[in-house]
Amino acid sequence: MKIGFAVTGSFCTLQNIIKALKDIVDAGHDVTPIFSFNVSSLDTRFYKAKDFEKDVIALTGKEPIKTIVGAEPMGTSKAVDLLLVAPCTGNTLSKIACGITDTPVTMAVKATLRNNTPVVISVSSNDSLGANARNIGSLLNTRNVYFVPFGQDDHLKKPNSLIADTSLILPACEKALEGKQLQPLFFHS
Predict the structure, then answer these.
(1) pTM value?
(2) What average pLDDT does the segment 54-83 reach?
(3) What range does the domain containing 110 cover?
């Protein structure tokens, strides 16, 4: 399977995303990485931009796509069988739901969906059950959009926060290729 692997700036989850990427590559899938502008350029306490890029290249053997122009061909000639957005921040989630195309990741999503190719979202956002709840609802009802099962990561300190179970990324992708949502969609942490 050819997978576009789009990464956005939920920096605290990038270690888990590297593990999920390794699982996908180890399963024999061809992965094309796509980075948001922030993932491409920001150094955080969780990861330095160049170190993350180096780790992704080591796993995939490919330089990440880092421009809108570079991401646009993702939808042509079935460049991918599926696009995974992992992690998907609330900012990116809202842009996808509203059809905004202003980053490499949102362009890759638009380009992929226009060819009726599945997009799988691995949400990671502190406002998923707040301002972004309507966007999740909208995308749950959007053709060819699927979610990695998710739940609240800390219901006491962050009651509006949701995070996907990254260990379920590969099974969610496999189900999406069948046109099905991996169930159960919600888990209790």
Answers:
(1) 0.94
(2) 92
(3) 2-177
